[in-house]
Design a protein that fits this description.
- The chain has 102 residues and is mainly alpha-helical.
- It has 6 helices and no strands.
């Protein structure tokens, strides 16, 4: 069974598991299936907006699809959440990603 199939089978049992959704989205990114990854990141962060690690990858996936304006908005939202959570490392990474687009 490939990783995507395994992750999907786990998600059938625990559909709200943020870690599994994030991991599945990353697998899609490895296959250059950005749109599938983007949908998962959207779903994940709608349910669990404090899952800070997904903002960076969601934004980068959006950049790859050419949607830089939405990517900027996602990076900014991630920075806001990271600061709220006092996660300075994540805030700095997201700030750098935003700066790279400006």
């Amino acid at each position: 069974m490939d990783r995507i199939a395994v992750l999907k089978s786990y998600l059938e049992k625990t559909p709200d598991d943020s870690f599994l959704k994030h991991a599945l989205a990353l697998e899609y990114l490895k296959l250059h299936e950005e749109n599938k990854a983007i949908r998962l990141f959207e779903e994940l962060l709608a349910h669990d907006p404090d899952y800070i690690g997904s903002y960076y990858h969601w934004g980068k996936a959006l950049v790859k699809t050419g949607d830089t304006q939405k990517a900027l908005a996602i990076f900014q939202k991630g920075i806001e959440i990271a600061r709220k959570l006092k996660d300075t490392h994540a805030a700095a990474e997201l700030q750098q990603a935003e700066d790279d687009l400006l």
